[in-house]
């Protein structure tokens, strides 16, 4: 198995007496999208800064591309792309001039026009490339930041809230592009406040108050949030408390049964695909007419709330 | 791609960035070039290198007195820097005028001025003023000395003219003595004893009178010679010898026997005395012909510069303006550079990217050197070819001096930028440096006027070196003083390493 691109062990950063991130253990494989989700101020940016070498850890170990960030070689720095949370380019230069500036910083050769135009096409800024940055909207500035980060074709990308302030259509396009980049073998570490974007990631880390609550694939996170997969059952008639109690006792029902309304239940099971035929069979025996039965995929906002709630309960 | 090529590509990053940022502000560049040009032009038009006239009010006890009238006649013609504002008797009223700034100076003449002089005491004229500017205060002191010297000169002139007048009297005595000699000669030829005796008495009186009047005049000239440290001239000595000889001859003739049969010896003495009187007459005429003003003020000065170009006041200040402006621009641009990047987050990108602190610094040095270089060319062009300020030295020396000045100023700017936390703080530090340079660099106040410890401040400023070197190169055509040039470059190198050290700290991990 390949060595992980990012590996941390009990990574901790304190500012004075305040702990920004605490004992974070991560292992991110090459060629994956790692989503780092958490509320504002939970330590996402601090973690990115630890991984890019901007901060030194107070405790713990961290290796990125096989090197300690505090001692990145120039070759390793050339493999890393970093898009900070705040706009970081010059507002008195045009889009094109800023792109050239970043290209020079990374030592990209002067035959770069095609590459820069491609990137500006991707972020839909090509027709605005002569505009001075101070005249751009916040969203356009984010798009420019992303394009600038990709100029030198980094193999590892740290994107700190790249989709903040971007309209939903373009956000989707961004994620499609991130997935394309991933397909080319590059690794992306992306922080976001949009919990729903976790669905686009291969792995998701949930951070709250500086602590990493869990790391898993999006589907497994759902399961962990609700204790399993969710099945939504709707009948043609009212479901009596006795019937609901019977359902709870069924062997394939592994979690809560929640009444959503008089004829609808949400049932937690291990495997929705295998369980739904069994529920239908049981309903037939009990002469219950099913109007609909389906696996429910709750929005990640709900998943995140559940996970944070569970994390708090564990404390 | 080789590492060396990538190094140069990274260096080009800031070069492009700064050039584009500056080109986006053409008005700024225009102002930076035309601003100093207009300042110098206005200065050249408006600056009059003349002493300030002072409105002077005289206070005298009795303004109707003869002394007051004589004073008024004199002071109105003393010189253009004295504007005569009249005579008052009331000192308090005069002070009121001074407080209201209606006059600049009150000259108070003591009530008993003539008495003091008669008592062999000098008269002190008190000059009251209400100036707060130390330079103007000194000027009033100089003004007083100059005009009192002029008054003294006029008094001396009158005395000398009087002396010359007396020499005319001496001439009259001389003519009379010669006439007596003729009469005596005729009496001797006629052997007229009574007439001889009469002429003997007359000759004695005439020669005594002649010796006294000529002696006084000779004493005046002799005194002047001694006062001026001039060795006693042969003319004076000769006059004194002639007077002695005339005295002896007149005594001898007075004692001659009027009954004598022959007057051979007396005739010889008469001829000798006649010759002496002729000689004396000739020498006295020379003294009478000397202008009294030359006698009282025999020496004058006339400054003459051996410089090959005629310099105007604005020419002298032009190198200082160029040095000060370039230092200020380089410091300010560099000071705002890194502090802005730290504030706007660009520094975070540098810290993650492959560019190192030394590459960042070199790249920024290069871009600001280039910018300041272009600005220098434009500025020099308008100053030398627009205003006609002379350029007597070589352009290579001029360029080397500006390069050292700009390099050092950029270093100072970067150190400011790396120590300031905000834009306004960086601007304030730059302005403090400018203010220090205006006072201590010798731009407007000569370095010789500054005390020892303060000179350390002066020689820590790039502008001090720049002004001194540029004035030598542009206005004297000298080769730049290598010591000054190396010291300036040395300060620049010191600030380069300090800036590098500070930038490494800023770009290091937190």
Describe the overall structure:
The complex is a heterodimer of chains A (315) and B (510). Helix content of chain A is 36%, strand content 28%. Chain A has helices spanning 44-52, 74-79, 95-105, 113-122, 138-150, 168-183, 218-226, 241-249, 272-285, 300-314; strands at 6-15, 18-28, 33-37, 59-64, 80-83, 156-160, 187-192, 203-208, 211-216, 229-235, 253-261, 264-269, 290-296. In chain A, strands 5-6-7-3-8-9 form a six-stranded mixed sheet, with helices on both faces. Chain A has a four-stranded antiparallel sheet with strand order 11-12-10-13. In chain A, strands 2-1-4 form a three-stranded antiparallel sheet, with helices on one face. In chain A, helix 3 runs parallel beside helix 5 and helix 4 (113-122) crosses helix 5 (138-150). The longest helix of chain A has 16 residues, at 168-183. Chain A starts with 5 loop residues before the first strand and ends with a helix. Chain B is mainly alpha-helical and 510 residues long. Chain B has three domains: 11-46 and 309-507, no CATH class; 54-130, abc type-2 transporter like fold; 158-296, Four Helix Bundle (Hemerythrin (Met), subunit A). Helices cover 73% and strands 4% of the residues of chain B. Chain B has a four-stranded mixed sheet, with helices on both faces. In chain B, strand 1 (54-59), helix 3 and strand 2 (82-88) form a beta-alpha-beta unit. Chains A and B meet through helix 2 and helix 3 of A and helix 1 and helix 12 of B.
């Amino acid at each position: 198995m390949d060595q992980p691109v990012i590996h941390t062990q009990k990574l901790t950063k304190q500012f004075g007496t305040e702990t920004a991130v605490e004992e974070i253990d991560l292992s991110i494989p090459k060629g994956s999208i790692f989503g780092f989700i958490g509320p504002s101020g939970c330590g996402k940016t601090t973690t990115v800064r630890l991984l890019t070498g901007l901060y030194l850890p107070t405790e713990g170990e961290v290796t990125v591309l096989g090197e300690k960030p505090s001692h990145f070689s120039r070759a390793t720095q050339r493999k890393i792309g970093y898009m900070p949370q705040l706009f970081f380019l010059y507002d008195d230069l045009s889009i094109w001039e800023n792109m050239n500036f970043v290209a020079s910083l990374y030592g990209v050769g002067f035959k770069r026009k095609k590459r820069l135009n491609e990137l500006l096409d991707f972020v839909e800024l090509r027709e605005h490339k002569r505009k001075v940055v101070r005249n751009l909207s916040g969203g356009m500035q984010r798009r420019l930041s992303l394009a600038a980060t990709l100029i030198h074709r980094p193999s590892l990308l740290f994107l700190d809230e790249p989709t903040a302030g971007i309209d939903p259509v373009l956000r989707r396009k961004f994620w499609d592009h991130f997935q394309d980049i991933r397909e080319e073998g590059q690794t992306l570490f992306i922080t976001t406040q949009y919990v729903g974007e976790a669905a686009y990631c291969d792995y998701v880390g949930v951070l709250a108050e500086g602590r990493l609550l869990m790391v898993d694939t999006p589907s497994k996170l759902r399961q962990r949030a609700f204790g399993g997969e969710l099945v939504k059952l709707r009948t043609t008639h009212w479901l009596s408390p006795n019937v609901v109690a019977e359902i709870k006792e069924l062997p394939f029902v592994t979690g809560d049964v929640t009444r959503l309304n008089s004829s609808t239940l949400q049932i937690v099971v291990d495997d929705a695909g295998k369980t739904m035929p069994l529920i239908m069979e049981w309903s037939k025996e009990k002469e219950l007419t099913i109007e609909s039965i389906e696996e429910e995929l709750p929005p990640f906002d709900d998943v995140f709330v559940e996970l944070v709630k569970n994390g708090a309960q564990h404390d | 791609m080789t590492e060396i090529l990538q190094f140069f590509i990274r260096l080009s990053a800031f070069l492009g960035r700064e050039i584009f940022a500056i080109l986006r502000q053409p008005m700024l560049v225009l102002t930076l070039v035309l601003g100093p040009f207009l300042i110098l032009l206005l200065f050249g038009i408006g600056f009059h290198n003349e002493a300030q006239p002072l409105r002077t009010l005289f206070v005298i006890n009795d303004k109707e007195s003869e002394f007051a009238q004589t004073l008024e006649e004199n002071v109105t013609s003393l010189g253009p820097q004295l504007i005569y504002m009249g005579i008052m008797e009331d000192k308090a009223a005069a002070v009121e005028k001074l407080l209201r700034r209606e006059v600049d100076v009150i000259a108070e003449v003591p009530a008993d001025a003539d008495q003091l002089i008669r008592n062999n005491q000098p008269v002190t004229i008190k000059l009251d003023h209400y100036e707060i500017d130390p330079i103007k205060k000194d000027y009033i002191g100089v003004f007083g000395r100059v005009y009192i010297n002029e008054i003294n000169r006029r008094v001396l002139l009158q005395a000398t003219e009087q002396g010359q007048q007396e020499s005319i009297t001496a001439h009259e005595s001389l003519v009379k003595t010669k006439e007596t000699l003729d009469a005596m000669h005729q009496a001797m030829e006629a052997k007229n004893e009574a007439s001889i005796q009469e002429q003997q008495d007359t000759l004695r009186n005439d020669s005594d009178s002649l010796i006294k009047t000529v002696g006084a005049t000779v004493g005046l000239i002799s005194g002047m010679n001694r006062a001026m440290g001039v060795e006693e001239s042969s003319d004076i000595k000769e006059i004194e010898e002639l007077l002695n000889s005339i005295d002896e001859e007149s005594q001898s003739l007075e004692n001659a026997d009027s009954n004598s049969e022959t007057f051979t010896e007396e005739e010889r003495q008469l001829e000798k005395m006649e010759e002496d009187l002729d000689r004396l007459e000739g020498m006295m005429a020379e003294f009478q012909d000397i202008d009294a003003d030359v006698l009282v003020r025999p020496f004058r000065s006339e400054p003459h510069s051996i410089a090959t170009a005629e310099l105007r006041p604005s020419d002298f200040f032009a190198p200082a303006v160029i040095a000060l402006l370039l230092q200020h621009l380089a410091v300010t641009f560099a000071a705002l550079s890194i502090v802005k990047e730290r504030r706007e987050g660009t520094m975070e990108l540098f810290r993650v990217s492959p560019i190192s602190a030394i590459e960042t610094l070199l790249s920024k040095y290069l871009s600001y050197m280039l910018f300041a270089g272009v600005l220098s060319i434009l500025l020099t062009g308008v100053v030398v070819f627009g205003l006609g300020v002379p350029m007597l030295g070589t352009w290579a020396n001029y360029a080397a001096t500006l390069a050292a000045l700009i390099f050092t100023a950029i270093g100072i700017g970067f150190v400011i930028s790396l120590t300031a936390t905000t834009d306004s703080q960086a601007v304030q530090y730059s302005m403090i440096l400018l203010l220090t340079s205006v006072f201590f660099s010798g731009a407007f106040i000569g370095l010789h006027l500054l005390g020892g410890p303060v000179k350390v401040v002066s020689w820590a400023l790039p502008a001090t070196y720049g002004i001194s070197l540029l004035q030598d190169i542009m206005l004297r055509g000298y080769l730049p003083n290598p010591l000054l040039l190396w010291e300036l470059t040395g300060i620049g190198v010191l600030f380069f390493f300090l800036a590098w050290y500070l930038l490494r700290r800023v770009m290091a991990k937190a």
